[in-house]
Amino acid sequence: SGVLFGFLLLHIIGIFLFTRGFLLSRQVLENKSSCQDNLYHTYLNDDITFQKTVIFLIDALRFDFTVPGPQGENAKKAKSYHNSLKVLYEMALSKPENTLLLKFIADPPTTTLQRLQGMTTGSLPTFIDAGSNFAGTSILEDNWLYQFTESLDKRIAFMGDDTWSALFEQNFNISYPYESLNVWDLDTVDNGVIEHLFPLLESTDDSTWDIIIGHCLGVDHVGHRYGPEHESMATKLFQMDQVIRRLVDSIDDDTLLIIMGDHGMDAKGDHGGDSQLEVESTLWMYSKKPFFGKLSGDLYNIQNGGENYRSVNQIDLVPTISLLMNSPIPFNNLGSPIAEVFLGPQGSDWLKLAQSNFLVSAQVQRYRETYNGFFQHDSQADGLWLAVVDAMNGFSDLSDFTQAQKVVEATVTHQQYTLNQCRHLWARFDMPLIYMGISILILSVVGLILVNKISNHDLPSLSVVLLINSLKGVIIGNVIIRISTFFMLTRFTSPFDIDLSLLILFAAALGYILGLFYTVMRNSSAFHNLLLPIASPKHLYKRGINGGFWSLGGITLILVHALLFASNSFTIWEDKILWYLLASFGFAILVASFRIKNPRFRTLAIYHGVIFLLLNRVSSMSTLCREEQSTHCTATYSASVNSSSWVIFALALMSILLPSIIATFYATSASYNGSAIMWIGRGLRIVMFFSTVFWALDMVEMKNWDISWFMTSTTLGFAKLIIARLVLGSTLLAANFAWYCGPMCVQIQFSAMNSGDKSATGPVRAYILGYSNIYGSVFFLFVINFFASMLVISNPLGALVLCLLMYSILTILELMDIHSLQSSFVIPIILGLMGQAYFFATGHQATIPSVQWNIGFIATQTISFPLTHLTILFNTFSGPILTTLAVPLISLWKIPPISDRMLTGNSQLLLTSCFKNLINYLAYQTVVTISACAFAANFRRHLMVWKIFAPRFILAGINLILVDLLAVIALAFGVGFVVFNVNRIF
């Protein structure tokens, strides 16, 4: 386990270095704009357009929620969210000079924290910034809240999503934050906003506030909880409609009302990516006095849900609201002023629009000049700025309509060019760090192969030497890098662009690997095993790497999976391809089963082969489609399916069938005794029953069934919380403790040696039932503990799929035993492929929106470390977790304490066998991770890098670290305990 832990550290270092090189965050300039700047002093004046502003942000307010749905003959196609929030479009039609309705386009990632950053600073987020959505910190960049409080001495009141407090707490005079990430709670935040908003707004004390910000979360939470087409969405949108109408009535002539969303949501109610539905939000501005103009042309067409409706970028709000409040534009802003806001009610005030655009272009140019080292010399940008200056200098008459339009055209071109350039450069790549990270991962695979070549007899004695030499390598590597650094510093001014701490990490990893190489290469058995395939190709053909045709097949499967990432199309369809690979193995082993000479074993092998293929086929039908799969994929994993009665019924039926199925596998080796009866026949069945009850109550809640005669909605929510906590506590804590202290799956049976005379007294023969599978039967109970915990934190369809995974694992173990594949390389690879395939089958994809965040609040009402984080982790990686824990069963399944496979019955040999299977499994996982990283780096300028390749490498990195950790736990805690206990007795 110490060696496995060393590989865990190597993988962490390799992935960390690669990530630091690949996912560099955008550089932040802390410069602040000021009213004292000559530019603002010239053009800004005391004629403030609005004295006060009310900003009401409705989270996930997708644009098509606000425009009329299908009418007339197509009315049947209307969704539940149509025609529920009518006020925005109604007033845009009835009062066009007072109202402005626009499509509001978010820059991905479409997570709330990044959207708030964009809408307050005017800057662009980076891909990796999405990970900080759950740990926001104060914004250091210039933003309009800072400008309002520091430059204008405005008083800001806030209520709603507590993300604002994490970012801008120092700017608020009044603050009522609410927990934002509990997506099961639809009303608390919204009701809190309403409770505090209107008393402030309707107060006669004008000195209390200048800016009010309210951020409601109900629409977003309904989307996450039920999806946008659920009837709860109509209810929530209607509530927002009534609140907006009241806001319109409450403001005065000097107050600007802004209603907006931060992002949209996809068809499942999720967000985080860059699909059209996710990035299209809403901006609505209202003034009691005529103020807004309109552009010419058919730009405000609402046909097809406003598909071609006029849109602006969310960052455009920043210069717009700053100029309206006569405030300096935040220094890092890349947005443009919204034309309709400055054209005037008649749509003809081009001079005001030209001045506004010139101010923004000048600020953008200052930003470029400050970032000069980043943008480098750009003659095209310089030429565009000169064109702006020339156009502005061309004003001979302030009423020159034509010249004003030229200024607008020049400034918009300049702004758009800079924005597009920044979008292209939003992530810079540090290639040395990328190469260092990949090289560590590649060397770790070589190390895994070398360790695997040490003979089973030599490995136990070499383990300590291996660790000592590796640690020596760490020390030597660090000494060398420090001496080299000192030498370079004395010779050169700036020798390294890489942080010294990162170089030390790299040297430590490299030294560890070299120490490992040194130890292994000095071992004669390892050296012989390495050279034998090279010296004798015939040997390679006959035996493969570790035992025959199947091992070569395993290597082929690894290569096919790894090479998928060379194409964006293959990466998109990885879920389907994995099922084809598993089906190929299943078909091959089914054909091989017909060649078994023993009729009984042949029949069993064929039966299990067919079952394996059927289980894979049924599991593959559980599908969550990603956007790029388009119409070629039919999603079966959805909120409607998970809340359907038939899924709950199937889960209830499975709670009866699966324990019985597992019991039949135990019965083949007479192992259904002792603790197996308690674990499988009672404990597992009870846990599965309560998990079914939990999801049945959830279905009742989702369908809004009236069960007030039985329990209130509050009682129902409390009952779900108690059930979830009981299941998780009993499976992860109580069950593992009982497993550690409990009996084995054996029973001693006595019978008279003289069976002919049952009444006679005499010698008695003792039989140990379960002796032939004493290791595997006990260890599988350990796997069952984790499986049982995942049932309540996986949606019903996901729980059903996990049941099929457990059945598949047992089927693979039986096929392995019949075909004598315990020493083959292929079985660990198949388990690895199964883990990856069932990741997709449990409703996940290699995309941010597919993460089932709502699961984090199944056992807690607020974010609670580590419970929230563990439930999301277990839900997301349930497939890989179970298959990793099952790998030791390759060595443990159906062997007695003393057998030919163990030679002498030495427990160290059995531990070594389990260790090597884990090594093979980790080698597969590492190769897949290397491939994902390498192709992400190779396609770093690819159009789809942030949509396809980057999420896949992040998934691979997290998965590798997780399975490394689980391998250590499985070997040290699971296998070590089982082998020690059995050998202590036998």
Automatic annotation (TrEMBL):
Its main location: endoplasmic reticulum. Gene3D superfamilies: Alkaline Phosphatase, subunit A (3.40.720.10). SUPFAM superfamilies: Alkaline phosphatase-like (SSF53649). Keywords: Endoplasmic reticulum, Glycoprotein, GPI-anchor biosynthesis, Membrane, Transferase, Transmembrane, Transmembrane helix. One of its GO terms (biological process) is GPI anchor biosynthetic process. One of its GO terms (molecular function) is mannose-ethanolamine phosphotransferase activity. It is found in: Endoplasmic reticulum membrane. One of its GO terms (cellular component) is endoplasmic reticulum membrane. The chain crosses the membrane at residues 6-23, 433-451, 471-490, 502-521, 547-565, 577-594, 646-667, 679-697, 764-787, 793-813, 825-841, 853-874, 881-898, 918-939, 960-980. It is a multi-pass membrane protein. Pathway: Glycolipid biosynthesis; glycosylphosphatidylinositol-anchor biosynthesis. Belongs to the PIGG/PIGN/PIGO family. PIGO subfamily. This is Uncharacterized protein. It comes from Nadsonia fulvescens var. elongata DSM 6958.
